[in-house]
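Incident log, structure service

09:12 report received: a user says their structure output differs between two submissions of the same chain.
09:20 pulled the input from the user's history:
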Amino acid sequence: MLGLQHLIRLPALGVALVSLSVSLTAYAAQQDIAALLDDVIDGPHRSEENRARDRYRHPKETLMFFGLKPDMTVVEISPAAGWYTEIIAPVLKQKGKFIGAAPALPADAPETFKRRDTAYKNMIVSDPILYGSASAITYDPIAPSFTSPSSADLILTFRNVHNWAKAGTSDVMFKAFYDALKPGGVLGVVEHRAKSGTGLQKQIETGYMTEAYVIDAAQRAGFKLVSSSEINRNPHDTNDHPGGVWTLPPSLRGVPEKDKPRYIAIGESDRMTLKFVKK
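09:34 re-ran on a clean worker, output below:
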């Protein structure tokens, strides 16, 4: 027969076992997403040009930091040519849902932008084995909407905030993110990082934004900053280049041939990585 002391310990033991089970389940899930990301990042669908940027963008670490899971509904905002899409969408193809949301282009938009957006849509629909039921949509940049209210688990945007600051649409964009996310949903932001105290006009001109600007914009929409990471820090980037962030690779905009090796050696920009939660 169990003594009183043993009987008292049984509930505590049960709690400990449940806690261990939950921890192991969470650990297993983390291991699963890590392995899945490894497989996708190493996949043959990715070009050598895109692979070469992994060392600057750290896609596995970044997406795990934001909490990506295979059963999520994920919206990527302004995905451009789809560098991140080709990693995220395959992860979601069996259990989740991916939406790539690009701004609707005006009729007089540069042809390069039109061709890029067409190529992006074709990329997604042309390979359902790789991308599953992923979809590409357009949104009104003045009155954005991305999906049904409170339906997304995770919204991600990579290096886009400077564009919204320039257009004066940061507030409407962050409010639209908030509206689209479920309560407790996550907004992940990666952005070129300016030195603290940099004036707004300078931020817009250079493409480097202060963390304070991004955090304030998110908080005005109702978000709470829950974590930040230095995953995408580049200590070699001085943030003071003649042509702003576009001086660095991959753009190297306006850089004379003789100076390109110097900027290539710096690498891509120093970037903040911020995780917000819808309250």
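09:41 both user submissions now match this output. Likely a transient worker issue. Closing.
09:42 reviewer note: Confidence is low (pLDDT under 50) at residues 12-25. Residues 42 and 274 are 26 Å apart (CA to CA).
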